[in-house]
Amino acid sequence: MKKLLPTSTVGSLPKPVWLAPPEKLWSPWNLESNKLHEGKQDALIVSLQEQQLAGIDIISDGEQTRQHFVTTFIEHLSGVDFENRRTVKIRNRYEASVPVVVDEIARKKSVFVNDAKFLRKQTNKPIKWALPGPMTMVDTLFDKHYKSREKLAWEFAKVLNKEAKELEEAGVDIIQFDEPAFNVFFEEVNDWGMAALERAIEGLKCETAVHICYGYGIKANNDWKKTLGSEWRQYEEIFPKIQKSNIDIVSLECHNSNVPFNLMELVRGKKIMVGAIDVANNTIETPQEVANTLRKALEFVDVENLYPCTNCGMAPLTRNVARGKLSALSAGAEIIRKEYKT
Ligand SMILES: [Zn+2]
């Protein structure tokens, strides 16, 4: 029988201090060339070990081999200048130094496939691999070439589809596309964002997920959340479109957020990765708190479709806090599993 409530993380986990300085985004590598390659692989093994020790069921790479969930992918494409970066405002919210699209983009070789093969060799558990979604990619760069967000998203979708097919071939069980931009640009999601995502998953036989959150626990995001009022209804704008799509799993933010749980009703039938761990503070949830969040979600999600998860990536947290939160997630899920067995 398949395990009830399989736990996973959204993707990123803190890196060991010898690989990159902790507690920040775009943290620079501490190693170079061959040492960096070896260091990334070692960090992947450490990350796997920490997830297994914590009892996580669906393993991710912890994003140990990438500096950032979007820009690292973009930097591997031709047609992109990542040396002469530009500063742009992303998600309408905060400034970031990003690569520049200067020509037609193309994926000359795979980006993460070797990393995925490496992880696949280390564990028999299901593995999930995160890729940036087309709309979020468009929103995390400066475009000097296409001059159309829609056109560029479509090109990214084609490139992502190739990468995803090779990841599937490498034995990845779930491919997840990170689309935090979906929570900001509703009109574009409905015009072309969802279509681009569907293009990215075209022909895949493995499971597919979309992760839509309110961002990493950094100050700009936390400030933004304070402006969203007592009910965050962003998901209401996009879930109907997702419900009609071929995406299998929806990953969303719940714990400590003002998202009304009943919005999950809009994607009834899909699998839901319910965020039961807050990544924006250092307080480690108790298993009971995790269980309470899952219990509330169960009013709107069938138990076989509930996948306990984190709200977002944990890259900006300390390793100790991240470890504690992983264990709390497992322990909280176990409380509910026991209730369903009796
Ligand atoms: Zn996220």
Write the layout of secondary structure elements.
Blueprint: H1 33-53, H2 71-75, E1 78-90, E2 94-106, H3 113-122, E3 128-132, H4 134-138, E4 142-143, H5 149-169, E5 174-178, H6 186-201, E6 207-212, H7 219-226, H8 234-243, E7 249-253, E8 271-275, H9 287-297, E9 306-309, H10 319-341
Parallel strand pairs: 2-4, 3-5, 5-6, 6-7, 7-8, 8-9
Antiparallel strand pairs: 1-2
Helix pairs in contact: 1-3, 5-6, 6-8, 9-10
The structure holds zinc ion (ZN).
The topology string of helices and strands comes to HHEEHEHEHEHEHHEEHEH
Query: What is the mean predicted local confidence, pLDDT?
Result: 96
Number of helices: 10
Task: Give the strand line-up of the largest sheet.
Answer: 3-5-6-7-8-9
* Low-confidence spans: none
The first-level CATH class is given as Alpha Beta
Return the CATH topology: TIM Barrel
Query: Measured on Cα atoms, how large is the radius of gyration?
Result: 19 Å
Q: Give the ligands present.
A: zinc ion
- Number of E-state strands: 9
| Shape call | globular
Helix/strand/pairing category: alpha/beta
User: How much helicity do the residues have?
Assistant: 25-40%
The CATH architecture: Alpha-Beta Barrel
Q: What's the multimeric state? A: single chain
Q: Kindly, what is the distance between the CA atoms of the first and last residues, rounded to a whole number of angstroms?
A: 16 Å
Return the domain count.
1
Strand content: 15-25%
Largest sheet, described in full? Answer: 6 strands, parallel
